[in-house]
Amino acid sequence: MKNDEIAKILFEIGEYLDLENIPFKPRAYQSAALSLDNLEKDIEDIYREKGLKGVQEIPGVGKSIALKIEEYLKTGKVEYYEELKRKKPIDVKNLTKIEGLGPKRIDFLNKELGIRNVAELREAIEKSKLKELKGFGEKSQKNILESIAFMESSGLRYLISEVAEDVDIILERLKKLKEVKKIEVAGSFRRRKETVGDIDILVASPFSHKIMDEFVSLPGIVRIWGRGETKSSVRMKKGYDIDLRIVMEDSFGSALQYFTGSKEHNVALRRLAISKGYKLNEYGLFKNDLYKAGKKEEDIYEKLGLQYIPPELRENRGEIEAAIKFKLPKLIELKDVRGDFHTHSSFAGTLISMEDIVLRAMQKKYEYIGISDHTKELKIENGLDEKRLALQEKEIRKLNEKYKIKIFHGAEVNILKDGSFDIKNSALKELDFVNIGIHTNFKMNKKDMTERVLKAMSNPYVTCLTHPTGRIVNRRGAFNIDLEKIFKFAKTNNILLEINSSERLDLNDYNIRSAKEKGCKFFINTDTHALKQMDRMKYGVYQARRGWVTKEDVINTLPVREIEKFLKKK
DNA sequence: GCCGTTTTCGGCCCGACTGTTTTCAGTCG
User: Fold this and answer.
1) What is the pTM of this model?
2) Residue A194 CB: number of other CB atoms within 10 A?
3) Strand, coil or helix: what is A407?
């Protein structure tokens, strides 16, 4: 989609204008960029269908920016942007990533030392030129150099599943202190964003010394960035930072709201507060300087006349408007899930027996469990052919007799390059459910890939399309596919879409929401290849929540009788 | 440059911290 490309250009225009110290325009460009980034529809389609007027309907896009978007769609370039780059050939995008450097200082460094990019900045520091400048010194020079080094060594964001364990340990340790009255994780971790840059932990307490002492002596810390009365930061072994903030109990709710973000949500919320004659900050909600709320987060939303907004929805993607009308969906919860339809057993490629899977499912108090091994094309997974699938059926029947939990027999069938399957319909017919997914030939153009998947979905035995975009967070991007068409087809033909809880997290939050809006239903599955992975269901549920999904949208929340009916219809 | 149940003109979120100053600009979240 051109959306990203244009968003990037608009964002950078904002950064260049920032360098020139122009007020307000930078924000205008950057909010238009954000809005474009969040757009569900393809900007090219919008322009084709509704022209310039349609483009102007995008929030934050007025006449001037719409014209620039049109120019890009027609010529592949925005002259205004090219001119800004010519005038100031500075790599603003990467320079602003360096901590302690913003537009003003970048422009200053360019004027004083002619610095245009990170490499030249590093060179200047190595020659100790920076610290001679007005407003810079030994310390800022050192900090900048460290930030460059860190950026070059990692730069990635972390999956929440990668940091969750550390977070749990820290919370448990700090909770034990009697000085800690309340404690919560805030930031993007609390919003359950798929990846986080750092972790924010918030504590309510009147005494802070002991808490800070404990915090900076936690296991896994490699360095301490700062240590103050109310705020300290540490760098963890894995490479990310944890910030701890201590506030008074009366401000805990407002601080939690503030530090949970997102930034965009907070900006919108504060605007709303102002329009109602309030002032909102991390210390509380005030009217005429009188404290009105702040102890509990819920009170702030209530005083503003809003339904409580769960953290997962706080992205300024319509949640405030919905909360004004008390029309927020009741989001799905982990406890609503009654089974898992994507597990791989040792009958094919993994090390876990079907019985292990069944026992683990019972431990989780599931009502049912689906076993879905790969089919034969996936040699590496020892994929099953028709014969072995029939053998597996016998084993599963035995297990069904032995245990109370209902075991469904399925498969994860490969969608071949031409959209056909690597296994016969006669075998699929015998299964309780059929997942289909792409595991090979990722590199196709959008049209061919879409046709391939649509053809696969037209097979009458298909229950669910697994990991529909093929992406793996931080590792592999989505393949080219027209999701709008896929979602429409899924809705019409009653095919479920998978919310995959593994590091794929596929569908992602945006796609989930757009599928839901088209009336699609989902499976949330773990894609288990090792027993422990059956525990990651929660990450799929988080994504679902971020996609505004309710229990009713997810088929594996149904009681066993109803899900049997659902599957039999296929 | 964008936007509108006080406005088509005049606003645009806000407080803390850092490193540098000697009262504050710039940056961050």
Assistant:
1) 0.85
2) 20
3) strand
